[in-house]
Amino acid sequence: MTSASSLCMRLHRPGETLAMERRPVPAPGPGQVLLKVSACGVCRTDLHLIDGELPEPRLPIVPGHEIVGTVIGCGEGTHYGLGTRLGVPWLGHTCGTCDFCASGQENLCDQAQFTGYQLDGGYAEHVVADARYCFQLPETIDDAHAAPLLCAGLIGYRSWRMAESAKRLGIYGFGAAAHLVAQVATHKGQEVYAFTRAGDVTAQRFAKQLGASWAGSSDDRLPVPLDAAIIFAPIGPLVPHALKAVRKGGSVICGGIHMSDIPSLPYSLLWGERVIRSVANLTRRDGMEFLALAGEIGIRPSIETIPLAGANEALEKLRAGALSGAAVLIP
Ligand SMILES: [Zn+2]
Ligand SMILES: [Zn+2]
Q1: Looking at residues 11-20, what average pLDDT do you find?
Q2: Which pLDDT tens digit goes with each residue over 43-79?
Q3: How far apart are the CA of 130 and the centre of ligand 1, in A?
């Protein structure tokens, strides 16, 4: 194992494309597992990383935080058997002792480290991960389809939990996270109102196929006020738009890690106890709850598989909105 080399796609500097490189197979340290990667999803956060929109990434870095792999090596103190299938999410490490960690908000830990940002991720044949932050995956979902669950699904689920009591739920940006949230929401009996780019009839049709009651663009008039809206598109001007669409006491939940500036807005849009909030990262509890639910409701991610070497092309397709599902890299 030590002499073998392993292929990865690595970012050296924001603004550059990823370089295809060989490196030694990483060795698992104490508490870590070594996984042979079988699939890794491409997330919009990877684009923000590559575009330099996330502060202080560790460089060079292998992106990718929707990793499915099989345990082929264990560091000291890990309990997973060889051959176990695991998922590696965005949250890769926390301190475990700060006030956030102690109060069930490990997603906000100041010492947190994130996969594919400070820790090498899954755009690679192999990855090492802290076993305590890995998840076991529902057996009914294959590797490629399980990959998008690990960020799009998890962040989507955490965002959705903030809107769990809504009867009418708006979703802005109908991409990887939204198409999974829509399946959870309709399963739970919520009405889904899907907002896409103007004229994107394909995405609107897709939203309706997944059970949305209404699909249109943010310029279209909604038939009813919403109880809550989740914004996945990284577009700040959608915030005042969503505030206008929710009823008094309703919430606007921003589910992305990066968003363009929110324009100034009249206080009257927020008045009436409307709430704007963000959702950051995930906790392990979110992961366990969501993955159990995903297995139970038979969630069906829509994916497009692409060979690992095509990572740069996959990212450009995501940027252009030219993917027919969540892109999943296959080493
Ligand atoms: Zn902490
Ligand atoms: Zn992500």
Answers
A1: 97
A2: 999 999 999 999 999 999 999 999 999 999 999 999 8
A3: 15
Separation of CA 284 and ligand 1 centre (Å): 13
Q: Is 77 exposed, middle or buried (0-12, 13-18, 19+ CB in 10 A)?
A: exposed
For residue 239, how far is the Cα from the chain centroid? Answer: 20
What is the assigned CATH class of domain 5-150+301-330?
alpha beta
Domains 5-150+301-330 and 154-278 share a fold: no
Tokens of 302: 């829509």
The rounded Å distance from CA 98 to ligand 1 centre is 4
Domain ranges of the chain: 5-150+301-330, 154-278
CA atoms within 13 A on the CB side of 272: 14
* C-alpha 93 – ligand 1 centre gap (Å): 9
In 10 A of CB 223, how many CB atoms? 10
Where helices occur in 62-175 by DSSP H, the ranges are 99-102, 143-146, 152-161
Ligand nearest to the CA of 45: 2
CATH T-level topology, domain 154-278? Rossmann fold (3.40.50)
Minimum-distance ligand to the CA of 65?
2
